[in-house]
Amino acid sequence: MKRILWIVTAVVAVSAITVSCSRKVTRIDPGEQIDLSGRWNNTDSRLTAEKMIDDILKEKWVGDYQEGHNGQRPVVIVGFVTNKSHEHIDAETFVKDVEQSFIKTGRVRLVQGGKKREELRAEKADQQTNATTASMKKFGMEQGADFILQGSINSIVDSQKRKKVVYYQVNLELTNIQSNEVVWIGDKKIAKYVTN
Amino acid sequence: MVRASAVLSLMLFLFSCATYNTRIGSYYSQMVKGNYSQADAALESNKLLKARRNQLLYLLEKGKMTHLLKQYDSSNNYFNQADLFMEDVRTSAADVALGTLLNPMMQTYKGEDFEKFMVHYYKALNYLYLGKPDEAMVEARRISLQSYEQQDKSKRENRYSDDVFSLMLQGIIYERGHDINNAFISYRNAVDIFLKNNNQYYGVAIPDQLKRDLLRTAELNGFTDEVQRYENLLNTRFRSSAPSEGGELVLFWENGLAPVKQQQDFFFALTKDGLGNFVFSDPSGAFNIPFDFASTHANRDDLKLDDLRSLRVAFPRYQEQPVFYRSAAVALNNTDYQFEPAENINTIAFATLKERFLKEMSTALSRLAVKKLAEAAARPKKDDKNKDTKEAIALAIQVFNFASEKADTRNWQSLPHTISYMRVPLNRGVNVLQLTFSGQTAKTINIVAEGNGTLQLQNVCTLR
Question: Predicted ipTM?
């Protein structure tokens, strides 16, 4: 009898220790670097944003524009960042940081593009019939952009058995809308070595 | 002896040898006949499905049944619960103990890998039927998370590490939401899996529709280099065509039913190899399965070969549910459209069970060995004073072990056998598509789609 009890207790007791414990959640600093899977994560997005912000505001295109336009600040619109990588990557997370830096430093003016611009126009259209004449916003008064910021994300994956190197390259470029001249190009390269 | 017989009759009462399929038989038969309301009632009155350990199966079956009843809101309520359940469920100590001391059927059901993907398919369809495209996009994103989890789980090659149909579906949902860039990534990931596996993945050949979808979205994104690359890889030419005025309909045909699990008995003997390792071998010598010390926590010193002569282990095996309809085609405006296979759940089920056979058999055998040890330990010695009592206890344990040995025969049985799909260009206004199923008999049904210039999704089910 003793042995049966021993086996039964051992199975139950040891299994209780070794099975996964209940879920635990801890809040962390968003700036903390924690790499779990080797896929694109918040740290990559943050590093990309930091590098791009640093590059784009340091370069001389802002000064050049101001010199030629009586000290006026350039107006930028953010276009599309195409994703050609192997993963679904949300470019908005780092593009928003770049946009925020434009506003914060006050060196560049920003206008809305894409879906938000359509929504603004729809709102203006709605105001034509529903708002008072005094408060109604007019069509054709938008601030035209001088430059458009566009980009692409590419990746290369090289793997063998349980080892993998993932390489990401994020490119952003700024083009003068009038002249099609590319005035700035920035990139961020990220390479990760993953072993399983 | 009286006590032993009492235990025997109690055990036989507690552990019937019926499989999961037979125990939910009334629900199953109503569903096959298309009596969804009666099937739903049978589901509600089934005690087995109400057990806490079977909660996931209840949620999955309810989700599918309410989907068939066109109660899409309720369906997603059940599927969302199932989705969260599968995400949060952990192996508990009680589960391990029950699995070791009784049988795996007593453990909490956590879902087959392909079942996890199918939840997103039904949820996406339900959300689109409810006119909530943004929620459907969430499902597209969740497919990525599920895929990552699956890839991380099956690190070894030649394993079910991706669900290619889910990637194709993900592309369609993104395209439906005008996110052509992400649609391209999904289609390309799906194509890459086919290319890596010689254009064949778990019983499905690379669909021509997928090739067209990949090249079209690459071109729409302006990725001309990718168009050229995949034209060469797929040995096909991209033909640009103007989008149809009424938009397009992606039609999914869910045919038949997923295989059900039956119980199969294997006989093994525990032996010690030259290196002193304990292995289970079967009489034919086809299997040599190591003792799994980790899962049973058994002590090496307690393994006495004399006590473990022969072991009967019950293991699940799939049984195919033959399909009634063999093919189907759609006619619209004097043009015929053919379905292409997109997912073969029958093949995936058989293949995935085979892939994990060795690991699960090792766990099952080790579990049995522990039970046998307990039985041997209770047996009286020659000079025992309480010989009769001990013999009765040993017999009771033996009977209990015999009666409780059972394979886990649970699975989500209302899933289809196969899913095929096609993309039909629509005219503006009302389109009536004639869908003809052929097999042992033929059947034609009409499907109505309002051509409004967008991409639409619909599914039809033939359950027998």
Answer: 0.77
